[in-house]
Write a structure and sequence with these properties.
This protein has 135 residues and is an alpha+beta fold. The protein has one domain: Nuclear Transport Factor 2, Chain: A, CATH 3.10.450.50. It is built from three helices and six strands. Strands 2-1-6-5-4-3 form a six-stranded mixed sheet. It is globular. The protein starts with 13 loop residues before the first helix and ends in an 18-residue tail after the last strand.
Length: 135
């Protein structure tokens, strides 16, 4: 499926938009990053109950809120039509952390909603240790 014909980004689906979003973030190309966002983008982080509304506020959140050396690697993006999910590996001062990020696009192909989950690792329960292989 592709986004409606009025897509101002020239990208054909959510997968492509999300790949461009992560590439711009890793490159710290904030103008390109911002161009992918709807004016009224809504970001939510359910674990910390953070919410950021609007392109300018979300740009500030990313630039000022993560003002340290970090990198990300996209493990997988799955998208169709106006929805996509990504699994990334975020590496910062405290090490690597996986992230699961869900995206919804507006009719013009820009990102309208982002929901991020950043699960913390935990120890393998002893009751399952004999059933699995660790990596």
């Amino acid at each position: 499926m592709s986004c409606p014909a009025g897509n101002v980004l020239g990208m054909t689906d959510a997968h492509e938009v999300v790949a461009a979003y992560w590439a711009a973030a890793e490159a710290r190309d904030w103008p390109a990053f911002g161009a992918l966002l709807a004016d009224d983008v809504l970001y939510r982080g359910p674990q910390t109950r953070e919410q950021v509304r609007g392109r300018e506020a979300y740009l500030r959140f990313n630039v000022e809120g993560f003002a340290y050396d970090w990198h990300l690697t996209v493990q997988r993006i799955v998208g169709e039509g106006q929805h996509a999910a990504s699994w990334i590996e975020f590496t910062g001062p405290e090490g690597a952390q996986p992230g699961l990020c869900f995206f919804e696009l507006a009719g013009d192909g820009r990102i309208a909603r982002i929901t991020d989950f950043w699960p913390d690792p935990y120890d393998l329960p002893a009751s399952r240790a004999h059933l699995v292989e660790r990596y």
